[in-house]
Amino acid sequence: MVQGLPEFPNGCFVTGTDTGVGKTFASAAMLHAMRRDGRPAVGMKPVASGCERTPQGWRNEDALALQAASQPRPEYLLVNPYALPEPTAPQIAAALAGVRVALPTILAAHAALAAQAGGRVLVEGAGGWLAPLADGIEQADLARALRLPVVLVVGLRLGCLNHARLTARAIEADGCRYAGWIGNAIEPPGPHAAAYLELLRTHLPGPCLGLLPHVPGGDPAALAANLAGG
């Protein structure tokens, strides 16, 4: 059973079982699902490494995807206040860029986005839950400061049950509200795909908020229906 997305009147924080599990794809689909009621919702990627120089400045592919899925369309510098060029861990990328990531700057950008979207801001973290956002800033610090429930994106592949259970425990141990999980098929389904899902439903705490199929290059707007429940 898929429960579907809760109301999230004040937005949510999205994390993953690891890097490369489709947090941004799931986040973009979530934004489209949240906006089905006609109300605004915007995305935010506070710290993003792996950016390209453009005439407008440094831009990150994930942050641009969240911006595109947002309504109203916020300015990029609010969506991604820290755009770091090197495609590596945020702490390393910030050091290489000579940038000091500061929590007050992120909170100010979030407040501006919340004012535009009636409070509904989806904030995507970087990598997995225990990957720091910056020196001295854990993902839990930001989720707590914003008082946001945490949604866990599980990359459906071998080993995901262990990673998902460990992450869910860590979220709760850090004093954050764990709102549930979304399964994202980052690989073509194998012969035991249904059994893996059943194990996740049985052993992973919290409701399943949606299941996203393996559709390389898929449209998040079209797949938002997979988060509707049923």
How would you describe the overall organization of this protein?
By secondary structure, the chain is α/β, with parallel strands linked by helices. The protein has a single domain, classed as 3-Layer(aba) Sandwich (Rossmann fold). 36% of the residues lie in helices and 21% in strands. It has helices spanning 23-34, 61-68, 76-79, 90-97, 103-116, 139-146, 160-173, 193-203, 220-223, and strands spanning 12-16, 42-44, 47-49, 51-54, 57-60, 82-84, 121-128, 150-155, 178-184, 208-212. The strands form three sheets. The protein has a six-stranded parallel sheet with strand order 2-7-1-8-9-10, sandwiched between helices. Strands 3-6 form a two-stranded parallel sheet. Strand 9 (178-184), helix 8 and strand 10 (208-212) form a beta-alpha-beta unit. The longest helix is centred in the middle third of the chain and has 14 residues, at 103-116. The termini are close together. GO terms for molecular function: ATP binding; dethiobiotin synthase activity; magnesium ion binding; protein homodimerization activity. This is ATP-dependent dethiobiotin synthetase BioD.
